[in-house]
Amino acid sequence: MDDGSDERVQELMKRRTEYWKIHGEPKPDTKKAKKRNKRVEQKKEERKEEGQLTMPVPSRIKLNQHVKTRNYTVPTLPLEKILLAETHMNNAPGGVVYQLPFQNVNYHSQVRVVDFFPPRVEDFAVQTSSAPLFGNQNGATEPKVGWEWRFCLLVEGVEPKPSKKQPREVMKLYVCGQDGDCLLDDDAFNLRCNPRRLEAIKEKLFLLWGNLEEEKSKAMASGQQSWGPVKSCPFECCIKEYGVQCTHGKDPHVMDVDGEPCTHLGCFGWERRFAMFGTTIHT
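^ that's the sequence the OP posted. Answer follows.
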């Protein structure tokens, strides 16, 4: 180091000493320094994690690996929260608050099958007919006959209950048409006339609901309305909500006018329904 540089260093040291005499020597660990260091560390962590995917938290519940859903971005909601319908409350102008009868929305949940209808798997498919697009050689338009899945699953949530004595909430999940094709990975057919294919469908459903059919069949044979404990694993499924016209009886003293809403208290003429979709049983 040359003499000029040494003189400049000495001058800086002298000025620093004089400054400290007037304003005081700074403490090594001030609050500002700690906050500044904390902000620096946070920025480092943000830069480090930027662009990385967030790994999902492992589920506490052991799920059925034979049942898979499509890759939807809808978050998983407990069944009880879906039934609660908190998002259906609407605030109208003038302070009027009412609940929407239904919304066309999709959900993703974890459930377990506790019952099904019709009570026999042989009746899970129904015969349908539709008008053909074109007539035959003679010009006649004979209806096209086919088969369609049409059954209902009664499911319950799998989240821990606040109390063991409290019954679980249940939901009717309808499975119809192409949603049934997706679930069973097979087109609908006459189940009563195809025993081999019927047995294959029952084996798939066993993966879905365990020994539920066996226990229910025993109870039905003995004339009982309930059955023993069922061994089955909860599974993930996609649920779609929709609405159908209500089934409330009309007031006979009210004139039947097109578009007239239901006179039942709190009903807008529609009932909330749920159906399974985008879910498949893998063997």
